[in-house]
Every structure is written in structure tokens, then in C-alpha cells.
Design brief:
By secondary structure, the chain is mainly α. The protein has one domain: Orthogonal Bundle (Hypothetical protein af1432), CATH 1.10.3210. It is built from ten helices and no strands. It is globular, with a radius of gyration of 18 Å.
Length: about 210
């Protein structure tokens, strides 16, 4: 790779600062619905998604290139929230939220000092946002799955949180699959390629977890 300039912490500090900001932003749903003062941060949500993606990638024998792409997509998927905050569903118009997210991401990625890398991240964000490739579909599903797992963690580790308290989060996760995706029987389907089968497998994992 031809270096456009020397790697310098000072040059990436403006971009890197947005990741530090995500450590300070609490996930709104946990605060508003479960009334948690020490709710999970956006950065913590992202970290757990990375762990799940790594384990699933290793289990599925993905190539390093594919695994790294998944991790990159996860790392930037909520990065816009460092500027606009974390909105829960139904608190903001969907189109308006998309506009805010895209504007925020464009501002953040523009702070990467190297044109080649900057262009790659713009493309990666567009792929995630359009949600039309198998990898982007997988990351969107992992996003919902992590929320469901976190809800279950709170129920198991907080005495004042009951099953009925986390039910809205489980229903939100499962309804995403039901409304946006058609579930296929992957065991009896020979026409699906490996990527599509993996997407279907994560869908089923999510639905089973949310029962």
C-alpha cells in the first residue's frame, strides 16, 4: 500500500474522538424503559456486536478479509450517534433519522486524513445503510440480537427487572425479522448460497432467543 502520509495520532484524533464520545452516550431505551442509571453505552453495544461477529466468523470459517469487513461495518454502524445521540424507535421520523445519520457520518468520515481510506469507509457506510448485501443484512441482525441478549442480561442480573420489563425489547428484535425478512428453512434448502444461509441462521437464532 502506498502511504499518502505518515501515520500520526494527531492527524486522526478528530476522527478517533467520536469513538471516545460513544463511551459517554448511554443507550436510550435502557434509560427510558428500564430506568437504568448505569445503562449500557453505545460503545459497549458495539463491542459486544464485534465479539459475536468474531465468534460467528470463526465458527463459520470466514476468511480474514470477510471478518475484518464485518468488524469495520460494526464499528461505524452507530458512529453517527456521537453527533446526533441515540434515538429509540417511534421517537423520530424514520426518514428524518436517516438524514441525520447520513449527515453525521459524512462529517465524521471526512475527518479521516487519508483519501483512499476515507473513500473505503464512505462505501462501507453506504453498504450498511442500504442493507442490500448479505454482510450488511447480517450486521443489522446482529445489532438486534445484541439488544435482545443485553435485555436478557439485565433481567438475569438486576433483581428489579422482570421478564415483562424486557419483553418490548425482545418483541422489537423479533418483529424486525418477521416484518423485514422472509424466514426460509435452511436445512431443506439447497438453493441458498453460504452467505444467505448464514443470514437465515442468525435470523433463526434471534427468533429462538426472543421466544
Amino acid at each position: 500500500m502506498n502511504k499518502e502520509s505518515e501515520f500520526n495520532i494527531g492527524e486522526i484524533s478528530a476522527f478517533l474522538g467520536h469513538f471516545y464520545k460513544l463511551k459517554e452516550i448511554k443507550r436510550t431505551g435502557w434509560k427510558s424503559k428500564l430506568h437504568l442509571n448505569d445503562a449500557e453505552s453505545v460503545a459497549e453495544h458495539t463491542l459486544t456486536m464485534v465479539v459475536f461477529a468474531l465468534l460467528f466468523s470463526e465458527f463459520s470459517n470466514y476468511s480474514p478479509k470477510r471478518t475484518i469487513k464485518m468488524i469495520k461495518m460494526i464499528l461505524i454502524h452507530d458512529l453517527g450517534e456521537s453527533l446526533i445521540g441515540d434515538y429509540t424507535p417511534k421517537t423520530i421520523d424514520f426518514v428524518k433519522k436517516k438524514q441525520l445519520e447520513n449527515s453525521a457520518i459524512n462529517t465524521i468520515i471526512s475527518k479521516i486524513p487519508w483519501i483512499t481510506i476515507k473513500t473505503k469507509y464512505y462505501r462501507l457506510w453506504k453498504e450498511f445503510d442500504e442493507n442490500s448485501t448479505e454482510i450488511s443484512k447480517m450486521i443489522h441482525l446482529i445489532d438486534k440480537l445484541e439488544m435482545a441478549i443485553q435485555a436478557s442480561y439485565y433481567m438475569e442480573n438486576r433483581k428489579d427487572i422482570k421478564k415483562e420489563d424486557i419483553r418490548p425489547f425482545l418483541e422489537s428484535a423479533s418483529s424486525y425479522v418477521i416484518q423485514k425478512h422472509k424466514i426460509r428453512d435452511t436445512k431443506n434448502s439447497n438453493n441458498l448460497d453460504i452467505e444467505k444461509k448464514d443470514v437465515e441462521e442468525i435470523k433463526q437464532i434471534l427468533l429462538d432467543f426472543c421466544k
